[in-house]
Automatic annotation (TrEMBL):
Coiled coil: none annotated. This is 3-oxoadipate enol-lactonase 2. It comes from the Bacteria. Keywords: Hydrolase. SUPFAM superfamilies: alpha/beta-Hydrolases (SSF53474). Its EC number is 3.1.1.24. Residues 30-259 form the AB hydrolase-1 domain.
Amino acid sequence: MPILSLNGAEIYYEDSAPEQANLPPEQQKPVMLFAHGLLWGTHLYDKQVEHFKPDYRCIAFDFRGQGKSEITKSGYDMDSLADDAIALLEALQIKKCHFVGLSMGGYVAQRVALKRPDLLQSLILLDTAAEAESPEKKAGYEKLLKAIHWLGVKRISKKVMPIMFGETFLNDKSRKQEYKTWLEHLKRNDKKGAARATIGVIERDEVLSRLPQITLPTLIVVGDEDKPTPYEEAQKMHFAISGSKLAVIKHSGHSTPVEQPEQLNEVISTFLTQVIA
């Protein structure tokens, strides 16, 4: 199992082409780094990795406290998680990458872009935001935290699904098995890890005021059924980052890589073609 010790945490990652590291730079594929959302893991991007790996070296990793990474006592604030992502790139000797981040992964991606723009070739922000959590949403997440503490993630997972997925996915009977698969992924979360990661998300500071500093090619994507980070949040980032592109994925909630993988892959592919050109 590929594990790296980074900033006091054992971080799990998956690399579609580790042999690329031994090739001369001019022969190496461009790198895509995938950062998942809260309560998920590398599996969130399975369909993106499958699509892009013929042309890109795809690296996905689990944040501390989630997936197969270590549950540490601290280090769950967004800046510390950004430092973990930077340390991962440095440990793998990745000089440049296209950074893809969804929700929590997007909060982290923005901070990496602000801290170390030299490591990024482009920034791809999925179903995310740049502002601090609103008081209303914070109160809702605090209720979720209490439920996790008293009941565990398994007992409340069905109530979390409508936050993570849009109505189209949830009501599609032909995707019932997919629903069950993702419900099982949620249930596997460790209580302590999930709680600490959630606190990190709801207590994050805003970076919207700093986004004009980002000059990287940037793609911002939002599902038209996304409730946690709706279109208005995507639009704010779009206005703040000069030259950024904004795409809306139809019939998708907060988990576009799962809900509408073909649409998303096409949007990302078009963007990357423009960046490389």
